[in-house]
Design a protein that fits this description.
single chain, 480 residues, alpha/beta, 4-stranded parallel beta sheet, 18 helices, 12 strands, globular
Length: 480
């Protein structure tokens, strides 16, 4: 028998872990009580979250919250550290294909102010450098480069620019101005091929001109040369193909996890743990093999719960699709408190979830994958993918989480909302989520509750309509 799924507090988790340890629980080296991250590392936001009670979730959280220690340990062991800014899923695949390299995203510092409830002062540092709250919360990264209290300064910094994010480009330029050289590579704005122009199908279903794929490949070749120089070894096709295969194993495990959780009658995992799990696909949380092991244990837990028909809530919970990651993790708990369940996501890096083609030359495959970045193309492309997923996962409502200050959120959310309403008629809400949403929780809760209630009313009307149609079709005059 497995324990019934339940969301518990940080204090309850520490008590539960102590009991599990006494009963013989074995953990990886980074394991331990979750409470230590709040009490010793200052991750105070954990006190306000509710966590899944499985040992798989315990491992997931400990893996996430020990990444900084893992990076410092890699540096101490003589590994070279690569900071891969903004591309979200491309350069890490190349870096991990070479021995002696560890890649991570300095961008991840955007969650630090939330997790540490602003005690990190990263925003204050960014403010002092002229990067105020008119910018996306990723400005916390600038503070992290200044105080050097979080991740080690990378041996190589790369950053994609062009059709990505204006906020991020400006912040990264400020980082370079502080004396941290960056190898910039350009992402063109993905466009539809002209009539008669050679076209290439990308992972995720987008299509791009052949010349754009060739351009991105040329940019990635420059990154490849820099990684080879850092590692002192060649990144040949054999190594790169093996790296792609390993990345695809992570992506396949995550794809299976998402499918099971989004389509089950009852949610086998909560929204918060699913959000964290998806983030592993971007750069493997600085350990590719362990990321796969963490996802594999989560999958085993989900299968065990499905086998005994256990999960959260019931089949009546409103199926909600969520667009954009939240700056405050507390919102994922709030969704479920309001009667919703997560049934589909688009967190701005769907290209990092898609399988990388293995029937192509490796650099060609990576170029196609990089160009499939949802931020590199028109918002209409992104809306079409969201609509496709809404149908696939039978979602009943849509939440668009607007990231405060983010340049790409100015009109994108509206376009997605309008497209979904026009094509599917689903209720939609767009909310802005700051890194600490405590003062806004009552209004955010009201808006999410209204969305859930609207979806329930729509469900009831559709059911009534279906009954009336069934009665009409069964009556004696329906065939005349």
């Amino acid at each position: 028998m497995i324990d019934a799924p339940r969301q518990i507090t940080l204090e309850e988790w520490d008590e539960r872990r102590a009991a599990l340890t006494a009963a013989g629980l074995r953990e990886p080296p980074y394991g331990g009580p979750l409470g230590r991250h709040a009490r010793e590392a200052g991750d105070a936001r954990l006190f306000k979250l509710r966590f899944d009670n499985s040992t798989a979730a315990l491992r997931l959280w400990n893996f996430l919250l020990t990444e900084e220690a893992r990076l410092h340990a890699a540096r101490a062991a003589g590994r070279k550290i690569v900071g891969t800014m903004k591309d979200l899923g491309t350069v890490p695949v190349m870096a991990y294909a070479l021995p002696g390299l560890t890649a991570f995203y300095p961008d991840g510092a955007w969650w630090t102010p939330c997790v540490m409830e602003l005690s990190d002062r990263l925003f204050a540092i960014a403010d002092s450098l002229g990067v105020d709250d008119s910018f996306c919360p990723v400005r916390a990264m600038l503070g992290a480069f200044v105080n050097q209290a979080h991740f080690p300064i990378p041996d190589l910094l790369t950053c994609s620019v062009g059709a990505t994010c204006d906020d991020f480009s400006a912040i990264a330029q400020r980082v370079e101005g502080l004396g941290h050289p960056i190898l910039w590579w350009e992402m063109p704005h993905r466009r539809a091929p002209d009539p008669g122009e050679a076209a290439v199908k990308l992972p995720g279903g987008f299509v791009a001109p052949r010349e754009q794929v060739d351009f991105v490949r040329g940019e990635l070749e420059r990154i490849k040369t820099a990684l080879e120089a850092l590692a002192g070894q060649k990144l040949d096709q054999r190594r790169l193909a093996a790296g792609i295969d390993a990345a695809n194993q992570v992506r396949a495990a995550l794809a299976e996890l998402r499918l099971l959780c989004f389509t089950a009658e009852r949610a086998p995992l909560p929204a918060l743990e699913l959000l964290v799990a998806e983030m592993l696909a971007i750069h493997f949380c600085s350990d590719r093999d362990e990321a796969l092991a963490v996802l594999t244990q989560l999958l085993a837990e989900v299968y065990a719960r499905l086998d005994v028909e256990q999960g959260y809530g019931d089949a009546r919970a409103v199926r909600v699709y969520w667009v954009n990651p939240v700056a405050d993790l507390r919102l994922m708990n709030l969704l479920e408190e309001c009667g919703g369940r997560l049934c589909g996501t688009e967190y701005l890096f769907c290209h990092a979830l898609d399988r990388i083609p293995t029937d192509l030359e490796p650099m060609e495959a990576l170029a196609r994958m990089a160009l499939a970045d949802p931020m590199a193309g028109p918002a209409s492309d992104r809306a079409r993918r969201v609509i496709r997923d809404l149908r696939r996962f039978r979602a009943e409502a849509l939440v668009v989480a607007r990231i405060p200050g983010a340049s790409h959120c100015a009109s994108e959310g509206q376009l997605i909302r309008e497209a979904v309403r026009a094509e599917l008629g689903l209720p939609v809400v767009e909310i802005e989520v700051p890194p600490l949403s405590d003062p806004f929780l009552p209004s955010l809760k009201t808006r999410l509750e209204a969305l859930v209630e609207t979806a329930r009313e729509r469900r009831g009307k559709n059911a009534d309509c279906g009954m009336r149609n069934a009665e009409f079709n069964s009556c004696s005059c329906s065939s005349s």
